[in-house]
Batch of 3 targets.
Target 1
Amino acid sequence: MGTFFSRAILTAVFLTLITSLSAQTPLLPGKIEVSGNTHFEWAVSDTNVSRYFENWTDLFLSKGAFRLGLRFEAHEPPASFASQDSVTGFAHRYLEFRKGGLYVRGGNFYSLLGLGLVLRTFENRTLRWDSNIDGLKVEFRHSLVDLQAIYGKPRKTRLDITELGKKNPASMGIRLPALAGGEVKLKPLSSFSFGGTYVNTGANASDVTDEHSQRGSLFGELNLKPGSLYAEYAKSDYPDASLFGVDGEAFYASANLFWGALSLSGEYKYYENFAIDDGLLNNPPTAIKEHLFTLMNRHQLIQNADGEEGYFAGLEYPLIQGGVLSLAYCSTDNLQGNMLYEDLYGQFEWNEFLGAEWTWAAGRQKDEAARYYNFVNSTHYAINDAYSLKFVYEHQHARVSARSDFTERQYYDQLVTLGLSKAPAWTLSFLGEHSTDQFAELDQLNPDQTSKRKHHYWAGGQLDLKLWDRIDLSIFGGTRREGKICIGGVCVVKPELEGAEVTVIARL
């Protein structure tokens, strides 16, 4: 715990430095511009598993076409949130040059080839995901062609249990074998482009061969006034199928059609043996409806690009003045034809009803374990030009199937958020949740491992402040339920909280 608080003090020093610089002219001798930001999250809880400390502090020095970037990180993550070690030190450093259509960056960088079938490395702090590559990236943009070339070693975002807990872990993380690749995109017409991607990597190479696996894709995109179309086909090739399994194949297509006020959209995916290094190095499109409401988001699809096929269909239409109807359906099966995930969703937004903005949503989600019925009401009412009220009510009924790894049961969850805001200075919110799930909490258990309580409650208050146009401060106090968070098919379990949580984002 001493280390925990020492990192908190260290972050406070960095935060003080950033905020003090914000009041000064951001120039060094030689007209070098200084900028930076810090992101700090700290939770103190009665529950050991939900105590955590996270900090990302960036410093940028710029002069002309050059920019130097440094990032200091300090992490004491909760055990259930992400498979990462506790580390302190400089995690990113890079030098970049940008002039006209040329961009060169040496050091840590991220890359997207195509739409992520072949390669997508990215950072998402909500998911505690950072798959940056340490190496060299060169891009060239022109009216007729876009080029990208990369080389480097990717960071392993999720560690195996044997890799955790080692003494003095590297602040830049464990690195996967080097990869090299790139993308060529030709743009003969303003409405049409096509190209290809390629990556050669040792991430899946065996101990008995130095041959590297390789993968590539071809893609095309058409954008016209009535709509748009995108398609990408990818293949992966392994030098020894007996060691690595069969070669992989992936296909993704999306289309949008605009007919007057009506908007139609559709997606199709087919992924076979295409989770590159267990999905750490690519993140192809999910072809599902991404939910922002908490209860529905907890039960979204966890992507498995090694074996899934599915589609998405969506519709939007303004039924009345100020009122828009949205409908969506998506389904994903494994390659044996068994259903993995299904979602039927409808939403109506009306911004001219009783002087408030309303959103009503209903849906049905289904996965291998359970079926969920959902209902949401969201109301935003402007009291005057400065003050406003927001009320969100979420209700979910679950029926869990009887299986060897699940107990057959029915329950419902309810979530309420009530907030008062004074724009743009502050928001004060109450957050409460109620559940009748017998496994909602793992204390006070019966002999059959179910809870002795029929009703479970979590409640807390949150204050969000904007200070000096440079600092966003969020303070939460109370209890919060453990729950899954999903973005783009990547999911983590956010731990329960019994105590306080502070988040600070400061910008220079």
Target 2
Amino acid sequence: MDLFSEMITRGIAPNVVTYNCLIQGVCNLGQWKQATRLLNEMVSKGIFPDVRTFNILVDALCKEGMVVEAKTVVQMMIQRHIEPTVVTYNSLMDGYCLRGAMDEAGQVFDLMISKASMVDVRSCNILINGYCKAKTVDKAHEIFKEMRRMELVPDTITYNTLIDGLFKMGRIQEAEKLFSEMLGCGQLPNLRTYTVILDGLCNNQQLSMAIELLKEMEANKVELNVVVYTLVIEGLCKAGKIESARDFFCGLSSKGVRPDVRTYTIMIQGLCHHGLIIEAEKLLREMGGEGCSPDGWTYNTIIRGLLNNCETSWAMKLIQEMLERGLSADASTMELIVDLLSKDIVDPALLQLLKDSR
């Protein structure tokens, strides 16, 4: 805004491009009053909003969940004889999807289809993602088939989204079939594709397949990151395969992968569930030495592990340590302490310690 003021001072007249940049900036900051003021100001100066101006407003409003207001802006465009573009409708459709209003999102899509050449791959991806999030994967698959009829080529995002949706519904074979189809169409999978598949396999108790895929990825020199390995470690921990999870965790350094806070916390959680609390605290101490500071989630995880293993005094020491680090107990920890207090399992001083820290 300072630069804008300087422009005016120097007698440089702003144009629609200038205002579009300003409106984009204030919208990104969520400053709607400023955006409205700038819009009114440009009109008062005889600078009329163009399609880009309206698209900025529609997109920003939708991202903030203000879809009703966004629809009003679209209607305003039409009244001003500014034809909404595919970008406009994509933003509006995405806004409805983010709110889970899939009927309205579908209506926008149908409107786009009725306007020749209005739908693009992104339009389909938005609706497919919305349907998958709403757990209506069959409707998502219908859009996928509709793409072929419209001669639109599904991209990696399309496949990733639909594969993820199928896995989340437990439809493993269909997800695997779609992945094979993706490869057959010459659409190259990216790291996100593999992450989706590994996550899907682990969450559907297909650990042997997940590990086999991981080994295949390593053999094919796919550049893997800590997220991929953490997914497998988490899957092994949830399946009670703590030894295998530990082996994977200990082998990360040899692969040139550094565990992050999430990796450590998941491993600590797995150890606690198996009563291996000494090893869990050892890992907590190791984190700091590796330059990976434990966060609130890490502390709450091990504290709950200690409490569940009747190690109240030990838990109190870690709670004190957590509070000294400026971290606090989360809802799950508080709930567990209240539950244990009702059973006279823990010292009431524990709850008081947490209350005093707030």
Target 3
Amino acid sequence: MDRFTALNIFNISEEEFAEEGGSDRYEELLFELANYFLQNFPHPLLIDGRLKKLDTLEEAWKALGGREEAVLDSSLVLPEEIRDLSTLIQFYDEQLAQCRTRLANSQSAALLRKNLGELKVLQQWWDREFIRLTGELAVEPTVMPSKYPDTSAMRKSIKHSDFSFASENVDLLLPFKEEKNRILKQGHGR
């Protein structure tokens, strides 16, 4: 990548770069990439798109004289097997919160790449495990897919004394059906 293209990616002039250096702008652009998933659902395809943008940003940074960073290994550890929905929901919520905290604190491309990769792995794992544990739950085309898992509503349903996937209580099953429809609509969980 040439210097002119790199400056365009950074949306900064040669004069501004000479005056300020590019590190502040680089960190701003990294934060913008991370911030997207702090505010939106972490769909794996969207994460892939952001990782491509990150590659371009990192290439531009190197073209402007920034140093290359070491690749970091993942620190996300997923359990071998989850036996019930309650445990799955609790583990997912905890890990998602930790992933988002790490995303918010990502101050390098290498760290952001690692954290986005972990977020993607967590979301794919959730999709697979959710489908596995809700296998007996019938999918209804009339139920709108969720935009993101409503784990709070799922927890409330599980605590209800009448809860089972064979239940006639539509309200208890709705958050599970919405999430199952979201996963299946996106082609995940298989």
